[in-house]
Amino acid sequence: MVACHPSIVQPAAEKHSTRASVVPVAMTDTGDVSETASPVSAKSSPLSVDSGTAREPLPGGFHQKQRKTGFRKMMSEQSIQLPNVGSSKNGKLEQTTSSSSTSFSRRGATVSFHKIHYAVDIRCGFICKRKITHKDILIDLNGIMKHGMNAILGATGSGKSSFLDVLAARKDPKGLTGEVLIDGAPQPPNFKCLSGYVVQDDVVMGTLTVRENFRFSAALRLPMSVSQKEKEEKVQRLIKELGLTKVADSRVGTQLIRGISGGERKRTNIGMELIIDPPVLFLDEPTTGLDASTANSVLSLLKRMSNHGRTIILSIHQPRYSIYRLFDSLTLLAGGRQVYHGPAQSALEYFSEIGFVCEPHNNPADFFLDVINGDSTAVIRESLQEYVELDTEHDKTSRQSIEQRLVEEYKSWSYYKETKEELEKIMQGQNYSGKPKFHTITYNTLFCHQFKWVLKRTFRNLMLNPQTFYAQIGVSLFIALAMGAIFFGVSGDSSGIQNRMGSFSFIITNQCLNALSSAELFITGHQLFLHEYVSGYYRVSVYLLSKILCDVLTLRTFPAIIFGCITYWMIGYKAEAGAFFFFMLSIAMTAYTATAMTMAISADQSVMDIANIFISISFIFMIIFSGLLVNLPSIVDWLQWIKYLSIPHYGLTALEASEFVGLEFCDTRSVSSGRPGFNASRESVTICTSGEEFLTEQGIDYSTWGMWKNIVALGCMTIILLSITYLKLRFIKKFT
Known about the structure:
By secondary structure, this protein is α/β, with parallel strands linked by helices.
């Protein structure tokens, strides 16, 4: 059957409201939405539309008398119930893993927030004149969000994303006060791991298929007690219910790999969170980057989930009218303050009561933002004009005046007072301190289980990404052939010394520069790692160990082997097995250490350009003190210590000590004999210099320990740098 997108989807019905009954929405395999017939309640709110009639004008076209009557009736019938604590036990939120007939069927938790205040300190200026400015992001937010579609709406910079992060326990506790309760109980310390959070920018492995991503989430986020068969059934059920059947075995897509559409990608991100049946699903601006039709499809999916009892809380900037009608609860923010919190269907009535009338055929969401921004297109009553004068010269002052006026009107609203009373009842018996509690990360699986799945995914991503493994192999092969041709068959005279030194420096420098690619792989996966780590997928040690095995060993070992085998025999180094394997070990260890340094620098960086600056500066100083550009014994004493931090220094010294020992470099020169002018003759003289003499002049220890201590030094540096990488990842900023 051919499905069509509904122009209007009715909000969910509640027993104490006059809103219309829900039109059931079905999602086809392609993600399209279809409707089934449903009777409409006789008592329709101003936002309801009969399914059998043509679309009516937008709510702004209703008469003022009708607005007041419907609004007062709604307020008289509307009541706030104490949260349902059925989904919690002993005050602790439980994670359910039941295999219901539909993954969408779950009683959502009730989220209540009390006196939320969030502020940050902004540092500006230079070190000597640094100033710290205190800025309030969220100010005195109170309310209750039940199961259904709960939307947070506001202009850019209003604090809606920050508010969403506070509710999801993903905001930095520093500067945060207030209390967030789940089903009337304190927010669990591991709430981040129990709830679902869909970030604004999609974070999903693009080289894997939709099914593989779902399997990964199920394997790591569901308890070990859940059998593999149950996990597979859950994955298959989610694929079907999210309308992803046709693209289940298609790659999500990257910049170089064509993948699924934007709407399918967004639904894949939602499915990754639905694996654990979260009591609350948070979404940060889920329509960002989607066209109107795709955005409507995604929000219709969320509406269908909320109709099955889920609690969905989302921030959104400027939804179209067909999307706005899907909301059950609406929270309007202006400058970090609440100007409305209540039923979405009653928002227009409320604004009409306080003096703002929505124009006919105007989108309610656009109308609210116009009012908050002080836009002159909003119709303002004479009573409000006494307080505010909209003049272009005083636009900023006018906007602040309007925001203050809206806040005052909201706090004098009867529904706000009822909400405060209910919050006080909920808070009774709670040990309220007003200070944020420490949040922890918990895991449902063991270390070995996590390591198996993360290693498998990392290796598969490596093999399927053309810009990583295959590119590294191709570049190494090309450079090795070019270098072998340039230094082909080095001679045994004095020029052989120069050519050997030049080739050694080129080899070591090339291994260091190749390590720069690990920074890009590390930074591009930074957001994905942070999201999965905070959500309880795996431990930091699992992630880093998988990176080491797949990146350091694979991307550095195989290219180094190919590079070394070609260059060693083409250039004509010592034809000895021991010397060859020591050469291979030296360039491999140099590559490992350089990669470890790159990872240590980029571990806490989110911008590639900044990481490249620090890495480039480090390598420049290391190359200078490697012993090639300057004779190290001639360096002043107070700078001698820098050579011990130089990775190229150890690699170059190891190659020189291995290759020059046992070699002689002889030059034949023609010299004159006899007295000048008296039967002078020219003779050929051969002058030889041993490799040991050359190494002594360079200040290089060519003993057995002198060779191997460079390898030991590189190994110690690798361990230290990887430890720094782990500490950076372990204590990385986990909050926005």
